[in-house]
Amino acid sequence: MLRAAGAFGRGPGVIGRLINGCGTFPGKNALNSALLSFRGRLWSLNVPTRNSSGGGGTLRIKQTAFHNEKLYDEMHFFVMLAIVPLGLLSFFTNIFIGQAELVETPEDYEPRYWEYYKHPITRFIARNLMFSPQQVYENYLAIRKRHMDARKLVIEDRWFQESELAKQDYRGWQFIPVNPAGVLRAHKDELLHEEMGHWFPR
């Protein structure tokens, strides 16, 4: 066992020399120096490492580029989908068609509302994608009419409330509002029954 310990010491180590020489335990200073020497041997061991095909390269942790790449892809998609075709359309329209010019019109001719615009693209948008001025004006009048009717109902309801408070007369338990449709239908059936009698099927 002492020979195995001496072989483990390997050469000039303090523990190996002491054990091989006399087989006795050394002092405190000798043990400390032996431990330091053994620790140095452990730290100097060559550990096998695996390098990939790069030959010693390390894997660096960096921020992901997924969002940036996604943004670039979407920008490229929308540019190629909308900006480029619309730019080509505007370019060829200005080159081959051009803007409208003022000419003399006959007396019995009434221009349409989209003919007041100068550019052909603006004319197309006003004719097919927007409401006519007459329709816009009529929609505005309809909205104003609904607001006026609502205001009139509010004024009438306020007048009824003020009248009830002033005259101390209001609907109470003795007045029950009902739907007269059933009563009128029954009265009409009764009159028809009296005129036609019991012998005629209805």
UniProtKB/TrEMBL annotation:
Alphabetical keyword list: Electron transport, Membrane, Mitochondrion, Mitochondrion inner membrane, Respiratory chain, Transit peptide, Transmembrane, Transmembrane helix, Transport
UniProt name for this protein: NADH dehydrogenase [ubiquinone] 1 beta subcomplex subunit 5, mitochondrial
Keyword presence, Cell cycle: no
Topology class, membrane: Single-pass membrane protein
Location within or outside the cell: Mitochondrion inner membrane
Residues of the signal peptide: none
Family according to the record: Belongs to the complex I NDUFB5 subunit family.
InterPro entries referenced in this protein's UniProt entry, alphabetically: NADH_UbQ_OxRdtase_B5_su (IPR019173)
Keyword DNA damage assigned: no
Principal subcellular localization: mitochondrion
Species: Schistocephalus solidus (Tapeworm)
Transmembrane segments: 77-97
GO CC terms of this entry: mitochondrial inner membrane
UniProt function note: Accessory subunit of the mitochondrial membrane respiratory chain NADH dehydrogenase (Complex I), that is believed not to be involved in catalysis. Complex I functions in the transfer of electrons from NADH to the respiratory chain. The immediate electron acceptor for the enzyme is believed to be ubiquinone.
Complexes and interactors: Complex I is composed of 45 different subunits.
